[in-house]
Amino acid sequence: MNPTSTSGSSTHSTIIERCIATVTTNYRVATMTDVGVVLVSATAVFTARVVCEETLVTWVRGTRWEGFSPSDSIVDFIGLLCALLTLIWAVLVVIMVLAEKAQLSATELVLAAVLVVCCGVRAVPYEDWQLLMVRLHGARHVPGKLVMSAAAHGDIRLLDYLLAHGVNVNTRAQHGESLLGAAAAAGQMDVAKMLIARGARLDNRTDITLETPLTEAAQMNHTDVVKLLLDHGASPGAVDVLDRTALDWAHENGNYQMTNLLLARPSKSGDVVP
After folding, report:
1. d(CA 180, CA 184)
2. With contact defined as beta carbons under 8 Å apart, do 178 and 212 qualify?
3. Does residue 272 lie within any of the structural domains?
4. How many angstroms separate the first and last alpha carbons of the chain?
5. Residue finishing a domain among 90, 124, 158
6. Sequence-ordered list of residues with C-beta below 8 angstroms from that of 182, at least 6 positions apart, any chain
7. What pLDDT is attached to residue 159?
8. Pairwise pLDDT comparison (154 vs 266), residue with the higher score
9. Each residue of 46-78: pLDDT tens digit?
10. Residue 179 included in any domain
11. What distances in angstroms separate CA 263 from CA 30, 56, 84, 189, one per listed residue?
C-alpha cells in the first residue's frame, strides 16, 4: 500500500470529521439560541405581568389579585413553567460553553442580561413596589382600600410610611372598618401594636355590624391580639349588632385561653349598648 495514499485518506477523514463537528456545533448553538429567545421572551412577558399586578393593578383595585381563579391559575402556572425552563436552558448553555471552551454569542449575552434583569425584578418584594407607587403619587392620594389592605396584610413599612406622611391613623373604609379593626381581624399583631402606639382608637365600630377591633379579633380567634387590645384599655363588654361580645365569640370558638382573658377584665360602663 502506498504510504502517501494512506496519509491523504487520513487527512481527508480528519477534515470531514472536523466539518461534521463544526456543523453539528453550529446547529446545536443555533437551536439553543432559538430556544433561549422563546423562553427568555416568555419569562420577560410574565415578569412584566407580575410587575403590572403589583403596581398599577394594586393601585386601582386596592389589593393584590388573590383567591383561586382558573384563568389566573393557568397563567401563573405557565409563567412559572417558562421561568423554570429558562433557568434549565441557561444551565445547559453554560455547560456547553465550558465543554466546548467557546464563548457566548452576542445573542446569548443579551438573553443572559434580560434573564438577570427578570430575576432581579421578580426578587423585589411586593411591599417595595407599593412604596414606589406611593412615593410617585404622594401619600395623600393613596386609595383607601390600599391603606386597609396594608393593615390587613401586615405591610408595616408601607403603612408606617403612609402614616408618617399624612394618612390618618383612624382612617376608615367605606363601611366603617378601621385600620386597627382590619389588622385585628387579620391577626396582624405587629401592625396592631404600631397603630395603637400612633393613637388608633380602640372603640371604632363598623357601620353595619357595629364591631370593634376587639370583637373582630375575638371572632377570628386571635388570642394574642385580644390580649393586646385588652392591655391597652379595650372593653370586653362592647357588643355588636347581634348583641355578641368578645366573650361570646370566645365561647363559640372554644377558646378557653381567650375566655379566661376576657373574664378577668371588667367591662366598662356604657360599653354594652352600641
Report:
1. 6
2. no
3. no
4. 114
5. 124
6. 148, 151, 152, 173
7. 92
8. 154
9. 888 888 888 887 777 766 554 444 445 677 788
10. yes
11. 75, 47, 54, 22
In this model, does residue 22 exceed pLDDT 80? Answer: no
Please state at what angle helix 144-153 crosses helix 179-186, rounded to 10 degrees. Answer: 30
Question: What pLDDT is attached to residue 133?
Answer: 86
Write out the DSSP string of 72-89.
HHHHHHHHHHHHHHHHHH
3-class SS string, 184-198 = HHHCCHHHHHHHHHC
Helix, strand, coil fractions of the chain, as percent rounded to 5: 70, 0, 30
Grid cell locating 33? 439560541
What gap in Å lies between CA 120 and CA 123, rounded to an integer? Answer: 5
To the question of pTM greater than 0.85 for the whole model, the response is: no
How much is the average pLDDT of 115-129?
88
- pLDDT at position 198 over 90: yes
**Residue 53 has what DSSP assignment?**
I
Residue at 151: amino acid letter: A
Residues 78 and 172 in one domain: no
Note whether 61 and 166 are same-domain residues. Answer: no
Contact status, residue 144 vs residue 182, Cβ threshold 8 Å: no
Question: Is residue 97 situated within a structural domain?
Answer: yes
Instruction: Give the model's confidence band at 267: pLDDT under 50 very low, under 70 low, under 90 confident, else very high.
Output: low
Segments forming the whole domain that contains residue 115 = 3-124
Lookup result for grid cell 371572632 = 219
Task: Kindly state the cell numbers that stand for 120.
Answer: 432581579
* Predicted pLDDT at 65: 52
